[in-house]
Amino acid sequence: xxxxxxxxxxxxxxxxxxxxxxxxxxxxxxxxxxxxxxxxxxxxxxxxxxxxxxxxxxxxxxxxxxxxxxxxxxxxxxxxxxxxxxxxxxxxxxxxxxxxxxxxxxxxxxxxxxxxxxxxxxxxxxxxxxxxxxxxxxxxxxxxxxxxxxxxxxxxxxxxxxxxxxxxxxxxxxxxxxxxxxxxxxxxxxxxxxxxxxxxxxxxxxxxxxxxxxxxxxxxxxxxxxxxxxxxxxxxxxxxxxxxxxxxxxxxxxxx
Length: 256
Ligand code: PGA
Prior knowledge:
It is built from ten helices and eight strands. It is α/β, with parallel strands linked by helices. The longest helix has 19 residues, at 181-199. The chain is globular. The structure holds 2-phosphoglycolic acid.
């Protein structure tokens, strides 16, 4: 069985560098014992340096929650993917539903994906429908998000792409539900099918497809085992050290 990846998306939390260090401390303790699980912590970019300087083990990586479409230039307020990379981050989330809601179009996401790959980051491309439709027409949304995000991505760098399937209806405090392992598996197979049309069967089978949306210590195992998820993208539960630690331990058990 392959190694699992657990990604913490802290969103716009916490408020201070001190709290960020406190939130990170238990993750750091647990990570030193892991042999099969990789943790990616995505704090607000402003806290990356303080956490990276406390980086403890080779199992923890850092990521940005977003990065701009350009690598350099006069863009007030933006964080470039090169800045993330040169600050010690290895990953970046692109196309998170909250970024899409804030105005990131498919075209912007495509530019961000390509810029982040140019900067040498591993890119977690987030896709997911607003509504699960019984006739399967939500698959069209997933397909068009994927095709748009990956348009023009050279095959030789696709090895640095990960996909996070996050149905919007399952994300955040206003979630109306959570996917099932079987539901996730279906979408993940569909995602691999699309990717195989773009990059071939081998890369489609190799790309990690993560599940995100209301992941909890209780449902994590189902997604990782039955759903065969390559990992989990965790929002709220990553802000609860007890919950996040339990999810990491579950991932470690499922990776063996
Ligand atoms: P949630 O968020 O775990 O709080 O639903 C997931 C995400 O937005 O990535």
